[in-house]
Amino acid sequence: MKTAFITYALLVLVLMSPVALLAQHKDSVKTLEKVTVGSQRKKPTFTAITPAQSLNRQTLQQINAPSVGDAARFFSGVLVKDYGGAGGLKTVSVRSLGAQQTGVTYDGIAASDAQSGQIDLSKYSVTFVQSIDLQQANAQSLLQPARGYAAAAVLSINTLSFSTEALQHTRWQAGLKAGSFGLWQPAAGMNLVLPKQMAIGVNAEALVSKGNYPYYIDNGSSSLHTKRENGEMRSFQGEVNLLKQFKDSATWQVKLSGYNSSRGLPGVVVFYNERSVQHLWNSDYYVQSRYRKFFNKNTTGLLVSAKASRSYTKYTDPDYLNNAGGLDNRYTQYEYYLSAALSQQIKERLTLSAASDAAYSKLNSNMSDFAYPARKSFWNSLAVNYTRPLWQINGSGLLTTINDQVKTGAEANTISKLTPAVAFSGKLSANSPFMLRLFYKHVFRMPTFNDLYYRVIGNVSLQPEYARQYNVGLVYCTSFKGAIKHFSISADGYYNSIKDKIVAIPNKNLFVWTMLNLGKVNIKGIDVTAEADGALSKQVAWSSRIAYTFQHALDVTDPSTVTYKNRIPYTPDHSGSALLSFNYRHWTTGYSLLFSGTRYVLGENNPYNQLDGWGIHDVFVSRQINIKQYGLQIKGELNNVTDEKYDVVRYFPMPGRSWKISLLINNL
């Protein structure tokens, strides 16, 4: 608790200091106008009609974020479940709605997992990522796949390869990272400009880590220091991207991507028993493509998207007690996806859009009596946006139809639901620095294959889980002359209500569980994000960013239970992050903070289930060296400077103090 208090005090000092209301330097603020496919510039995130946050490439290089899951922790309203280490699984929940309610897109096309409904963000490296964006409710562009309207929030991962900036000139880079616990991470990539407005990009990255970081078990007189077992990680990922721009400015993009990994799964820490032998293999491949064209003097837009993917997972546990001598479970998941979207601008202020998506998913396994489920999913959306000089309003309706089929056993009923959303933003005058924004959105999530068909615990009678979102926010953006150039801050209060929450409860005994629609959760919170930038002199520039969340996520299922109006597991009242960096000539140095308050590991909020808060402090320094037409960046990091002992998930200790050195060379 003492560490958490110190962390809170440091954050307050950062918030109150006129120097630390410093956020990104000037070019960082410009990159908030993120470039998407086709290089169409968007409004800054602070003036978006619904809450939006963004981390650009410069910021991603400054924070301790080897994966997208690590970077997402710097967004307000985001909770990341992290099981520790380079290969630790990382799933994201936005505003406590659950990982299954958070959509993830990679270069504009949705990533999916029909088996678990959760995307493991540890698979996505940030090495070649240009920006990571988090959008509440609906995206700003009406020209998008219908599937994008299905999620409560969308985390977008954007690379250069799907932007027409890739057509400007040939680029290449190569780098190596080395660090504590046997970490080695080489990477290389090239974007080659071809004749006839074409470009091809190739990149690859490998990661090797022993993951044997030390940790401390506190058990009074029997306390001991030991090292994490079974934390080794080996992975390789690569991509080939093709971009073509036609004479009419239409663009066509194709991506081939592969990911392979072998990782040990460190088990829960049990005193005097450090044995852990579970292992996980992943082999994921997909091809995706998009075609976008504007015609009729750019008043009509067409977007066609397609994707085919295959994901293989193997999980072994030799210690599992069964007649087969342990577990050796293998799953292969296939998905085929197609989308078409059309937008039409009517006069100057009114824009309409319609989209239709279809997906087919199936899951195979080597398990006996497996259901072999297959799912046909259809999304059809209509959206409208009306803009005036001082205000705008948009609304959407999404019709979702889900149909399951199985080879053995019973199958879930077909589900067809219509869910609406509406958003508004406005200013009192054209020069006012204040903006008010509101939104309401109704979403649902279909039970996953595991929820419905997993052996013993699956329940084919499950109903969808519904969530209603309400948000009211105030934004302030202004510019200054002097040490502070730009300053922006947003505060969004929200209320989420979840009905028919899907939960796992004991059935016959503690070893036999089943999935049921039992939960009701009410979530109230405030997200605050602030950014600023400036220059202390002609040679010294600075930037900073602050994100803070206050939240109450309460179980209101049954007044007669001990968990009634208790906080749901792993949802702290207070959490947030802070970034501060300085540039001097070719030198950059910076500091970052991540913190979380007290939370509970189970629905019953008693002292035994309480997990203490924590605060992590990281620092870095980098040097840019330019030699003729080449640039070399050398960077050193010291992470978890105070060697904080903490768990994100109980009994899964996180790494303590560590270091990392990276070298990056590229053409200028």
From TrEMBL:
Domain TonB-dependent receptor plug intervals: 50-142
Principal cellular location given in the protein's record: membrane
TM regions (residue ranges): none
Signal peptide: 1-22
Membrane topology classification: Multi-pass membrane protein
Subcellular location: Cell outer membrane
Keyword Membrane recorded: yes
Matching Pfam families: Plug
Entry keywords, A to Z: Cell outer membrane, Membrane, Receptor, Signal, Transmembrane, Transmembrane beta strand, Transport
Name of the molecule in the record: TonB-dependent receptor
Organism: Niastella soli
